[in-house]
Amino acid sequence: MIKAEIAITIPFHDVDALEIVWHGHYVRYLEVARCEALKKINYGYQEMRDTGFIWPVIEIKVRYPRPARFEQTILVRAELVEWENRMRFQYEVVDSVTGERITTAETTQVAVNEATQEMCFESPPILFEKLGLPPPPPL
To answer: What does the pLDDT look like over 94-103, one tens digit per residue?
Structure first.
């Protein structure tokens, strides 16, 4: 559906005393890749709000098979894999030189009507429009 890949060279402020990336920074890397993917369909966070919806992250799953290290360049890949009732992205973080897998992850976001603050039980038609898909039939 939509995919993006970004390169990040690990800065000093993201690592601990062993020069290994602190686990919480990966969430930021995922966010940057997800935003890049959403730009491809012109549905970044400001465009979401302009259409009356916000999309909070409600779940994050991350696995860390290998550490990323100071000054290592990583590739963060994001792919939208579900959109009918929520947006679910899958991620892969790899070393840019060797291709060795460092991290895998998944995030889930749901649409919330900004005016009413109510969660939508299906994705709003604007997401389907941005994806170039017909909206689902009414229930």
So the answer is: 999 999 999 9
